[in-house]
What does this fold into?
Amino acid sequence: MSKNSAKTVKMAHRILLTASIMALAASASAQTTITLDIQQSFGPQAWLYRYVGDSFKLIDSCSVGYNGLYRFVLSADAPHGQYQLQIGRANTIDLLIHNEPLIAMRTTIFAVHDSLKIVQSDENKVFVKFNRLRDNYKHKHKMLTQLQKLYPTQSPFGQQLAEEQTNAQTEFCEQAQRLANAHSNLLAASFIAIDPETHPTQPQPESADSYWANIDLQHPSLLHTPQWEASLWHFVGQLLRHDQLDKEQQDDLYSTAFAALLNRPMADTVRAAIVHSLCNGFSESDYYKAIETLLAHGGRHAERFAQDPELRLRLKQERQLTIGAKAHDFRYLTTEDRLLRLSNSPGRYRLLLFWSIWCPHCVELLPDLRQLYNQYQSKGLEIIGISVNVDDPEVANFVQSNQLPWLNTVFTSKNEDELAKHYNVDGTPKMLLIDDKMRIVSKPVNIQQLRLKLEKIF
It folds into this structure.
């Protein structure tokens, strides 16, 4: 037999086998059959994994069949979502499983990704096309990033590279959006939209309605992708792209965004995953309005957090410290032996700083705090540094050696419980800004938020 005749017979066998598989898949449409035809196969084994968040779960393995054909059959109750097919040690193919009885693919051993062809599966034709767009963008982004390291940011070529980076991102996002819009009836469209790379950096916070508009949260299968939680926290990060928001404005923005997100229609399992992720991320934070919103809108999925004794106590105490509430008055002895009350302390605005000499974050903020004090002290700002190191004589030494110019005092065994309770001091540093009428004005959690608030006040 000639070489051409042998090739013809071989191709006929492939066509016949593929047709047989298609017929079998049609007769059992509730199942999903996955075939991968590799010319010059890697070896005897292939493995099928399902994404669970950003980790994998092994679903099945199979041996190579006739003429390099790998074949998997998923049962009718197999979860839909993103899967990964591994062939050999270093070659993987991501694919989507969703309401298609047959997913047929073909490639070659020498260029698995570049030669990959989806023979049958509308979902994966779109998904593979998107993955190629993303891979090309990432490659270009990496090259531009390496070049940017070689040229000063303000140099003409450095500015040109920065512009090229922005253009590359914009072009990719527009291509991805057009692809998703053209196939909005497919699950692949939601998987494209949930990828954080498809959401360009915005100069202003992006609303929940805008960010999640093209993501069908009613699909539980979205949880079977490594992108869903990354996208959730990318959304949270995008909220604060605008860096001119003080602490209270940030808390309001988080609260509004979380309420809007959780009011969107979504599968119960998706809602549970979102609530758990956000509660885990925010329950230890000082964004109490955002926490209250999560507990209120999270329903039964937030019950575990709502019933946590430590969080309940923190929320109860923090409700006494809302903006506009009266601050608790107390007496204190400064490190210079001055006996004062908070209510008759100098300054139109007083910043209470609960800190510790053993807290590295506290010590790190002192130089910036000194700069703000020097800038605003003459305009009416006073700082009262309250060290939580109970009756520790080292505090006075630290204050003196570091020449901290503001009022300083130390927790004593007599007032420790009183101040910790009234000001909900469960960690350091903690800051509260109070006006001359003893009303709480702001509760910044970092220097930038304090700086913004002082700029608005003074």
Summary: Residues 150 and 158 are 8 Å apart (CA to CA). The radius of gyration is 30 Å. The longest helix spans residues 122-148.
